[in-house]
Amino acid sequence: MARNFPLWATFCLLARVAGLFFLLAAGADAHAVLIASAPENNDILTVAPEKILLRFNEAVRVVRFSMVAADGVAREISASSTGAEIKGSLPGPLADGTVIVSYRVVSEDGHPVGGSIVFHVGKPSPRSSSVSDIPSKALHTAIWLVTIGSTLGLAIIVGGSFFNCWLSPAGARRQSPALAAVAIMLVLAGLYLQGLDDIGMGPGWAELEPIAQAFADKTGIAQCLKLVAIMLAALPFAPRPRSARLVSATALAVASLAFTLTGHSSIAQPRFIAQGSIFLHAAISLFWIGSLPPLLRLSRSTEDQRPLRFFSRLIPIPFVLMLLAGLLLAVMEIPRIDIAWSSLFARVLAFKIGLVAVLCMLALYNRFWLTAPALAGNPAARRRLRWSIGSEIGLALLIVAAASLWRFAGPEQYQYAHAQPPVSLHLHGQKAMAELEMTPQPDGTADIRVSILTLKFDPMQPRSVSLGLRNTLRGIESLKYGLTHAGDGTWAAGNLPLSDIAGWSVDVQVLIDDFNLVHLEGDLPTGTD
Amino acid sequence: MIRHLALTVAGIFCIAGSAQAHITLEQAEAVSGKAYKAVLRVGHGCEGKATVRIRVKIPEGLLSAKPMPKAGWTLEKIRGTYEKSYDLYGKPVKEGLTEIVWQGGQLADDEYDEFVFRVTPAKELPAATRIYVPVVQECTEGAVERWIDIPAAGKTSDDYETPAPFFDVVAQPRS
C-alpha cells in the first residue's frame, strides 16, 4: 500500500488539474434557464394536458422530472429531451385541480437547475369565478327543496309500491297518478337546477344548456333512473300480484342505483364497498319511508292487520342493515373530515346521527311496546302507534332534508374540511423582519399576506417582495411568486398551490433598493402545532 | 490513501460546483492597499434576453474606483460620500465613485463579454475580508437579473440563485 502512495498522489494531482481545467472550460458557459413551457406557469386548462414541454436556453440533461397532482400523490414523469427541449408524458387521466411539475436539469456546465411549473386543470378556482354569490344561494335553496321533495316522492311511490306488493296480500293499491306526476316534475326540475348550478348561473331559464351540462356527468343518468323507477312503480305494468312484486322490486333497485351514481360518498375508497353500502342504505331507506304512509293508514282502520304484523316482524333486520351500511359510509368518510368538525359535511353528519338515534328509540318503542297491544285491539296503544308513525314520518322528512344538504358539502367542502387553519410565521433577518400569514382556501390553494417591518417594528416600504416556496419533503423544486402591494401596506399573493402545508419552506425576498436584497427564510408550521 | 482520494474527488466537485457562470469576477483575490483590476464576466442575458445595461455598486471600502471605457457602451459614473474616511497613500479620502453604469450597448444571450473597472481596497479592511460587488443586469423587454445575493451566516454563494460577484482581500506581503 505504502509503496503505491506516490502513484496515488500523482493520480490525485492529475485529477485536481483536470478539475481545474473543468473549471476553466465551464467558466464561460451559462447555466440553463427555462425560457418557455407548455402548459405555462399558472395556466388554467379546461382539458387535462397529456404532455408537458419545457424549453431551456441551452441543451440540458434531465436529472429528475416529477409531478404532484391534485390528489397530492407525487409521481415521476417519463421524459425525453432533445437538446434544449424536454418533453414529458403526464400520467392520465389527471384529476381536476392544481398540478405542480418539478424539474431538475443539468446544463453543459454541470450546474443543476431546479424549478417548478404550476397549472390548474378544470374550472378556475371556485372562489375567483363565483362572482354571483347571492343568486347561487337562492339556487342552492331551490335545489335543496326540490331534492327533499323528489326524494320523499320517490320513497313514497317506489317504497310504498314495494310495501303494497310484498306485504299487502290483499293486492296492491295503485299510487295516485297526481303524486307520481308531482314527483316526476320535481325530478326534472332537480335535473335542470343542477345543470344551472354546473354552468354557474343563478335560477333562471338558460334553454337546454343546463340539461346538456347535467348529462356531462352522472347527475343526468341518476335523475333518469329515478324517473324510470317512479314510472315502473306508478304505472299499471303488471296486473298480476306476482309480476307486480317483481316490477316493484325492480323499481326499488333502479331507484337505489340512482343514489350510488352521485354524491361524494360514491367516490370513497374502496369504491365497490362504498357503492354497495349506498345501494343498501338507499334501498332500505326508500322502503322504510315508503312504508310509513300505508302503515299510518292501516293503523287507522280496522281492516286486515297482517301487513302491520309482517312489517313489525320483518323490519328489525333491514333496519339494522340500513344502520350498519350508514355507519360504514360514515366511517369511510371520517378520515377525510378528521380536522374540521366545523365543516358543513361534519355538521350534517352529526345532525343526521342525532335524528337517527331518536328514530331508533321510537322504532324500539313501536316494535316492543306498541305493536302487540295495538294488534290485540287496545285503543290506547293504537292511538299511540298512530302518533308514533306520524312522528316517524316527521323524522324521515328531517333526515331526508339533512341528507340533501350533503349536496352542498361537495368536493370544495372536503378540501375545506381538510384545510388547516391559517398559519402565521415570523421571519427575522439582519436588515428586516416579516410577518407572514397563510390562509388555506376551500379550493385547495392558499393566500399569503406578508408585512415587512424594520428591526424596530416600523413598517417598511421595500421596492418589491417576492416569495420562494420549496418542499423538499415532496420533492417540489422552488416556485417563485412576485407579491403585489396591497392597499393596507402588506404584500399579497393568491392561488398558491398549498393544499397541504406540511414540509414547505418559504424564502421571502425583500428588495430594499436596487442593490440590497434580504432573504427571510423559514419553514411553515403545520397547522396542528 | 482513501482520504486523499476522497479529498481529491470532493475538490473536483467543489470546483465544478462553483463554476456556475453567473456574473463573476475574474480575479478571486486583491491585495489590500493596492489597485485591483476587477473584470466582470457576463456569460448570459436575462432568461434569454440581451443585456443592455450593467450597473455596479462599489461597496464601502473600495476606493478610487475607475471604470474602463468600452466601445459601444456609454459610461455613467455616480459619485458619493463614503461612510468612513480612509487613508489612501497618506491622504484621507471621503468620497469617490459609488456606482458605475455601462449602457447603450447590446450583448446577446449567446455572447460573452467583460466589463472592467479598477479599485483600491482600503488598507483599513481587515485581511481575509470577502468583498461582495452587487451587480444589476438589465436586459431588453424590461427584464432584470440582480446579482446581489450576499450569503447569510452559515451559507455560501452557492446557496443562492443570483449571488453577488466577490473577491477576497488579502494582506500585503511583507517585503
From TrEMBL, chain A:
Its main location: membrane. Gene3D superfamilies: 2.60.40.1220. InterPro entries: CopC/D, CopC_dom, Cu-R_CopD_dom, Cu-Rt/internalin_Ig-like, Ig_E-set. Coiled coil: none annotated. The keyword rRNA processing does not apply. It is found in: Cell membrane. Residues 308-406 form the Copper resistance protein D domain. It is a multi-pass membrane protein. The keyword Coiled coil does not apply. Keywords: Cell membrane, Copper, Membrane, Metal-binding, Signal, Transmembrane, Transmembrane helix. The chain crosses the membrane at residues 142-166, 178-195, 220-239, 246-266, 278-298, 310-332, 344-365, 385-406. Residues 31-121 form the CopC domain. It comes from the Bacteria. This is Copper transport protein. The lineage of its organism: Bacteria, Pseudomonadati, Pseudomonadota, Alphaproteobacteria, Hyphomicrobiales.
Automatic annotation (TrEMBL), chain B:
InterPro entries: YcnI-copper_dom, YcnI-like_sf. Residues 22-168 form the YncI copper-binding domain. Residues 1-21 form the signal peptide. The keyword Signal applies. It holds the Pfam family DUF1775. Keywords: Signal. The keyword Signal applies. CDD domains: YcnI_like. It comes from the Bacteria. This is Uncharacterized protein YcnI. The lineage of its organism: Bacteria, Pseudomonadati, Pseudomonadota, Alphaproteobacteria, Hyphomicrobiales.
